[in-house]
Amino acid sequence: MTTNASIKIDDKEISLPIMVGSEGEKAVDARNLRKDTGYIFYDQGYGNTGSCESSVTYLDGENGVLRHRGYPIDQLAEHSDFIETAYLVIYGELPNEKKRKEFGALLRTNAVIETQMQRIFEGFPKDAPPMAMLSSIANSLAAYYPELATNNFEKDLQNFDLAAAMAISKIRTIGAMIYRHSKGLPFVHPKDLPFCDNFLHMMFSEPYQDYVVIPEVAKALNLLLLMHADHEQNCSTSTVRMVGSSGANLFTSISAGINALSGPLHGGANAAVMHMLQSIHDEGDDGTRFIAAAKSGTKGNRLMGFGHAVYRNFDPRAKVIGAACDVVLKKLGKSDPLLDIAKNLEQAALKDDYFVSRKLYPNVDFYSGIIFRALGIPTSMFTVMFAIGRAPGWIANWREVASNAKGRIYRPRQIYVGPTQRDYVPISKRA
Ligand code: SDX
Predict the structure, then answer these.
(1) Going from the N-terminus, what domains does the chain have, and what CATH number goes with each?
(2) Which of 216, 309, 315, 336 is most buried, with most CB under 10 Å away?
(3) Contact at 8 Å (CB) between 37 and 215?
(4) HSE-up of residue 276 (Cα within 13 Å, Cβ side)
(5) Mutate to test the pocket of ligand 1, among 54, 363, 385 (most ligand atoms within 8 A of CB)
(6) Which residues fall within 8 angstroms of residue 282, CB to CB, at 6 or more apart?
(7) Using an 8 Å Cβ cutoff, are 364 and 318 in contact?
(8) How far, in Å, from the CA of 32 to the mean position of ligand 1?
């Protein structure tokens, strides 16, 4: 078993230690590379670079494997629920009955957004982008609960359990309030209900008519949020770790993650998939035009919901969510022409050498919108739903950064390609 990598630069040979993770992943430990050689590694987009050691999630992109704290995602999908998986992702173990009850109670008692904080919504236009609202209002948790957001890791870790429960519960409530704000509807106060039931209540109840939660709807929402709970060092989670590494508190770091997630190449893809499927439906197309455009290779024409930075095989979450679509729609007595279009699109792409040769398969976003829509959640809220689901993963990763006594501020290097030294020219002498 190789224990060191040898690199020969400028006739100098250096040896770098090899790191091996618990699942056999290997890395060249380059922490002394610059000190020993004056060189850095260049890896645009960090696709070949490990930024940290983490115990939360293991991904095997080649074989389509996803495990949270060792538990396979398909087993969690079948046997667990979002809150239990959230606890697992954050604390590292499945909760026993006592701890599960305590965690649920903490989430319920921290579901409300106080009146003064509700006034923030008045500053946003009704048609404000939901993710812009979510990141701003989530960040304001640091302003309203400064005792939980001291930017001192030791103090913030002492209050971690409450801050974590607040983040999960209040981001869910803020999401429902953003929907109500966008519709010009009054906010609905949370009730002593299970997490997903409370979300649906706060989204859809009317002043004199409580929304009746159909068990299948709550179950489907639980599944979708569970499938988004964490996903290794994705763009938004790496952002949370980057911001947290400066000593920033949990709420501020999560707000940065929400901003990263809002991009169309990341969390914005679930809504983009629905817009793509709707366009195909409205044009009476069979998807051929979109597939042809996607093969142009331009980022703006990509087949949304397809491809992944890590998976070179099926995203295991896409398999579970894709299978759940038929079940949920049937249980709700609904049908959706976009589901048939999605299935046809998947089949066409998986037979097309462009996608096969690039190992592009459906990802978590390809089918999730079909179920969100069947639950009555508008497309504009899909990325907010992704953020509600991803909160446990962000929290777990922030905690790893905050707890790492040997941790350092994240500070990548660069290769400078700008102008070399030149002297100042007075404005009178400039062209
Ligand atoms: C998420 O990282 C995570 O874990 C993220 C996530 C999570 O849970 O946090 O899984 C959630 O963000 C899922 C991805 C959602 N985004 C989309 O569905 C948008 C469409 N997908 C692509 O934009 C793309 O696949 C990415 C952004 C997801 C991955 O981009 P990469 O790793 O930079 O891929 P790449 O650009 O290296 O692609 C390799 C080739 C290129 O072609 P060539 O230059 O080799 O000719 O594949 C092509 C790309 O043009 N390609 C696509 C494509 N995705 C990649 N071509 C058409 N359609 C696509 N969707």
Answers:
(1) 73-267+380-402 (1.10.580.10), 269-374 (1.10.230.10)
(2) 315
(3) no
(4) 30
(5) 363
(6) none
(7) yes
(8) 32
Q: Which of 178, 367, 173 is nearest to 262 (CA)?
A: 178
C-beta 363 within 6 A of ligand 1 = yes
CA distance 143 to 347: 49
Instruction: State the average pLDDT over residues 166-193.
Output: 97
Question: Six-digit token pair at 182?
Answer: 């966008």
Residue 4, C-beta contacts closer than 8 angstroms, at least 6 positions apart: 15, 16, 17, 18
Per-residue pLDDT, 288 = 85
pLDDT tens across 378-391, in order? 999 999 999 999 99
What is d(CA 285, CA 391) in angstroms, rounded to the nearest whole number? 37
Q: What is the pLDDT of residue 85?
A: 98
Token couple for 356: 């096969």
Has residue 2 got a pLDDT over 80? Answer: no
Q: Is a pLDDT exceeding 80 seen at residue 297? A: no
pTM (2 d.p.): 0.95
How much distance in Å is there from the Cα of 376 to the middle of ligand 1? 28
Ligand 1 contacts CB of residue 201 (under 6 A): no
